[in-house]
Write a structure and sequence with these properties.
By secondary structure, the protein is mainly alpha-helical. Helices cover 50% and strands 6% of the residues. It contains 9 helices and 7 strands. The chain has helices at 22-44, 49-71, 77-88, 92-98, 112-122, 145-152, 158-167, 193-216, 238-270, and strands at residues 2-3, 127-128, 131-132, 135-137, 171-174, 179-182, 228-229. A 3-stranded antiparallel sheet has the order 4-6-5. It has a two-stranded antiparallel sheet with strand order 1-7. Helix 2 packs across helix 3 and helix 5 crosses helix 6. The longest helix has 33 residues, at 238-270. The model is unreliable at 3-17 and 294-300 (pLDDT under 50).
Length: 300
Amino acid sequence: MKFDPVPATTPPLPPRPDAASAEGEALVRALQAVLLPLARLAVAQGLRFASAEDLLKEAFIQAATEALLKDHPELLPHRLVSRISTITGINRREVTRLTKPQEAVAPPKPSLTTEIFTRWLTSPLFRVGDDVLAFLPRQGPSPSFESLARSVTQDVHPRSLLDELCRLGLVRWDEQLDRVHLERQAFVPRGDMQGMLAFLGANVGDHLHAAVANVLAKDDPPHFEQAVFSDDLSVQAMESIKDLVRRHWHELLNTSIPLMEKLIEEDRIAGRLQDQRVRIGLFSYSETVPTAPTSTKQDN
């Protein structure tokens, strides 16, 4: 058993010109570990390398621009292009092409279906003791699906929200009894590729932002980012691990959401500037550990 903030199972890398130092080698290994899953996703979804290359160039240019303007806010546009080209190795023409003014894109807000599903799982109004109500009457006073939906939004009819939750497989509507049954205990929008990709970008993106900020921090790491890692388990043992993760996730969900709602209301009443966002996650990953090939003996 190991306590390892950055577990890695990537194979040894061949020597590379940009990895002459120990720190450079570690950087290349980290980038390989991050880029390989992204490449698998791109290949599986049919994204061509040229499109991914442009995205990577844009990311390099944005990172270089942020770093330069932080230290030299007075840089003129033509000087900025030259400095970006020097820092990134991307030629000036490409930098100019990829730095056309664009409107800043705000982080996407959780969907209404996410909010409704999460509130059902965490609000005391939809619990009996520690247990979440397994079903709700579709209409009527609280607790009902109608009251749940209207507590989240008044702009969309509860029936439309119910149809979307049913489509995502999160709830089931028993039309005969006119009850809405909870089908899952976690929001994973299966069957909705756009939703799943949005989750991937938001969750992994913020996790990676936190990890990079911790690596680059000159003082104490600003974000909590740790992991427990073991490579000595059996396939059978993984069921116990999954049960452990599920239990801790439910505990985190049931304590964090009510606390956030309470703090949001306190900030609103106090008139504080509410310009902060936070994402608290829990993840697990398992795979078969590659084994070294067994040597064979030959008779002479």
